[in-house]
Specification:
Blueprint: E1 23-27, H1 29-32, E2 38-44, E3 53-56, E4 61-74, E5 77-82, E6 86-89, E7 95-110, E8 119-122
Antiparallel strand pairs: 1-2, 2-7, 3-8, 4-5, 4-6, 4-7
Length: 130
């Protein structure tokens, strides 16, 4: 492992592609040569709710709102988020995001995780859809 790594998030490929129109995501973990950290960038077009929510078995995450605003689904709650909010989410907590009228841009920092990842997609509805 090297002493440091420099990765430009905007130079990484969008991993979402056509699977979720209006949503772009870039993952830097494999490019960083880090033992414990993953960093990603997500951009939501205005008024877009991500098509899926997820949780983790082991990985804790922190989400930093770098521009825009929106709402975060955190388990059975929905909270408003705005620029420069930092949202820490425990592994087992289901999380999902929805952008406001100006869109939403997030930097996500993830802690250690199993080799093949531990994300678990859920099809359970948001609390306001129940």
């Amino acid at each position: 492992m090297s002493a440091y790594t420099v990765v430009n998030l905007m130079e990484l490929d969008d991993v979402v592609g056509d699977r979720a129109p209006g949503l772009n995501g870039r993952f830097a973990r494999k490019h960083m040569d880090s033992r414990d950290l993953g960093v990603s960038h997500w951009r939501y077009e205005p008024n877009l709710r991500a098509p899926a929510s997820h949780s983790h078995g082991e990985q804790e995450e922190a989400y930093v709102v770098v521009s825009g605003s929106g709402r975060a689904r955190l388990g059975d709650e929905i909270v408003d988020i705005r620029q420069w909010d930092v949202v820490r989410v425990a592994p087992e907590t289901v999380r999902g995001f929805e952008s406001g009228p100006e869109g939403l841009e997030l930097i996500i920092v993830g802690g250690p995780r199993p080799e093949d990842g531990d994300g678990q997609i859920t099809d359970s509805p948001w609390p306001d859809e129940s």
